[in-house]
Amino acid sequence: MKVDQIASELAARSKPLARIIRAVGLPPSRRAIRVDQRFERLATAILHQQLAGAAAATITRRVIAMTHHSLLPDRIAALSETQLRSCGVSGAKAAALFDLSERVLDGRLDFSTMGRMSNDAVMAELVATRGVGEWTAQMFLMGALGRGDIWPTGDLGVRSGWAAIHRLTHVPSAKELLPLADHLAPFRSDVAWYCWRAVDLERSGALPR
To answer: Which of 2, 71, 83, 141 is the most exposed place for a label (fewest CB within 10 A)?
Structure first.
């Protein structure tokens, strides 16, 4: 479905969401990235975990430079932990990158088959990788695989945005939020995107009322 149709459908199903849609416009189009880009996307996500944007970008650039500008599993596997640590990568993240690389190289993790797999099956394979939790896997599904019905209730921005959109007096927990967007399936990736935009609007004082 085209993004204008998705926006219209969501607006028709939810008046609170319709106000945000009018304020920020259409959601982004979703399309899976190429198979040969998926390892780099997931490795970059690991590097960015729990870091501010600027620091994460600097560390990622250093790692990419150390792999001779080819962030590929065999290039990562050829590095030592000391080399990764010299880029600013923590020990835990270095171990995660090595595990990710090994899983791809030995075939336990095959990015080329993910396009034909269900969301749950992809999640199960990704979270088996060291350092890849549910949130990282969900972001990969939404971004790298272009899946349209991911509902990342563990994301504080999504929960805060939902509260802002619906004028709630408290931010719902992940468990509380889980069923609240059932009526917005199969477009919950876009609902999450609107929740993030609602947080931006609230911070700027432009949240529609």
So the answer is: 2
